[in-house]
Write a structure and sequence with these properties.
Distance between the termini: 14 Å
Strand content: under 5%
Shape: elongated
Radius of gyration: 12 Å
Number of domains: 1
Helix content: over 70%
Order of helices and strands: HHH
Amino acid sequence: MDFGKTFRRWASYRKTVRELSALDDRELNDLGITRGDIQPLAREHAERI
């Protein structure tokens, strides 16, 4: 297992969760997502790295 790749994925996941969580509900709605979508979306994004 590549530790560097794992770390980059984890860091990407955390950054995405942090940035989306900082948005208010109206901003999230404008993007077409809900608070419940944040973690799955972040996980999906991180897996692409």
